[in-house]
């Protein structure tokens, strides 16, 4: 599955900014009616996009019936910038723009004021939590337990830093215990929920992320050959703490096997990797 977007920004001028919005519209249109791949609107952040540009992105997304995604308060910079520029916090600014709503998917959400957290909860903003990426950039640890307690829809993400979701789950499981000085915070079941049904929910995927009647048949077969027996009471903890991508042998998406016996079906992985390397080198040398 994939929900894709292009990060539009005004950093390189109005023409490229407008082209970024069009790129998203073209992708959304190209994916319309597809079963597994769809598009959404995306821009970078408040400090690289004007209020007018942000409103325009949300308007275009609303016209297509899709979400709008942006980075938000990944570190201390954006909140300080908004306070200096507008005299208010980042999400107070978004609220004044009229875009703080359930149609907003905000990534990171690390350095938040109390009022930011309240606005996120009150307006139903969706949050993507990226614990390892936040560590890599020195952004801090997001107040995810507090957001969950406030009823905020939260999913788990990687931001392309470490893409083994088992490692990302472990980070979410451990980091918040250290921050809150509480071993009971962010239990394994909560973390697994963020990586499955929670993630699907914040992306707007319907009936995805749970093994249940009437839901999409998305599943993994995971090696359970562990030193400690797997039981009903420890299954989730065993998955979150002791497994990683190398323990996944088979993957089904929408009722169809996509990986069997650790082999990707219907795709030449070497050819795909070579194509990615070719395009990366092309972009790096422009």
Q: What is the domain tally?
A: 2
- Spatial arrangement of strands, main beta sheet: 3-4-5-6-7
As for the CATH topology of the largest domain, it is TIM Barrel
| Radius of gyration, CA atoms, in whole angstroms | 20 Å
Number of strands: 11
Structural description of this entry:
This protein is an alpha/beta fold and 286 residues long. The protein folds into two domains: 2-214, Alpha-Beta Barrel (TIM Barrel); 217-286, Urease, subunit C, domain 1. The protein has helices at residues 14-31, 51-64, 77-86, 90-97, 114-123, 131-136, 144-149, 165-180, 188-202, 235-242, 269-284; strands spanning 2-4, 37-39, 41-42, 68-72, 104-108, 126-129, 154-156, 219-222, 248-253, 256-260, 263-264. Strands 3-4-5-6-7 form a five-stranded parallel β-sheet. It has a four-stranded antiparallel β-sheet with strand order 8-9-10-11, with no helix packed on it. Strands 1-2 form a two-stranded parallel sheet. β9 and β10 (256-260) form a beta hairpin. α4 packs parallel to α5 (114-123), α8 (165-180) crosses α9 and α9 crosses α10 (235-242). The longest helix has 18 residues, at 14-31. The radius of gyration is 20 Å and the shape is globular. The two termini are 31 Å apart. The mean pLDDT is 97.
């Amino acid at each position: 599955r994939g929900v894709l977007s292009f990060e539009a920004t005004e950093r390189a001028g109005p023409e490229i900014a407008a082209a970024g919005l069009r790129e998203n519209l073209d992708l959304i249109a190209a994916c319309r009616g597809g079963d597994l791949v769809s598009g959404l609107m995306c821009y970078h952040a408040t400090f690289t996009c004007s209020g007018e540009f942000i409103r325009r992105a949300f308007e275009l997304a609303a016209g297509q019936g899709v979400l709008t995604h942006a980075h938000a308060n990944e570190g201390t910079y954006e909140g300080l910038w908004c306070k200096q520029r507008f005299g208010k916090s980042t999400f107070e600014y978004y609220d004044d723009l009229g875009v703080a709503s359930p149609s907003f998917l905000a990534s990171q959400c690390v350095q938040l004021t109390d009022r930011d957290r309240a606005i996120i909860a009150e307006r139903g903003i969706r949050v993507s939590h990226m614990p390892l990426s936040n560590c890599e950039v020195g952004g801090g640890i997001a107040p995810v337990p507090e957001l969950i307690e406030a009823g905020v829809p939260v999913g788990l993400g990687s931001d392309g830093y470490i893409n083994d979701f088992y490692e990302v789950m472990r980070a979410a499981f451990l980091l918040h215990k250290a921050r809150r000085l509480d071993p009971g915070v962010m239990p394994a079941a909560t973390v697994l929920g963020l990586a499955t049904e929670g993630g699907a929910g914040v992306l707007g995927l319907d009936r995805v992320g749970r093994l249940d009647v009437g839901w999409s048949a998305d599943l993994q077969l995971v090696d359970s050959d562990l030193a400690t027996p797997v039981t009903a009471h420890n299954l989730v903890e065993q998955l979150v703490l002791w497994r990683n991508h190398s323990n996944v042998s088979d993957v089904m998406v929408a009722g169809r096997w996509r990986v069997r016996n650790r082999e990707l079906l219907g795709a030449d992985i070497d050819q795909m990797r070579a194509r990615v390397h070719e395009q990366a080198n092309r972009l790096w040398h422009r």
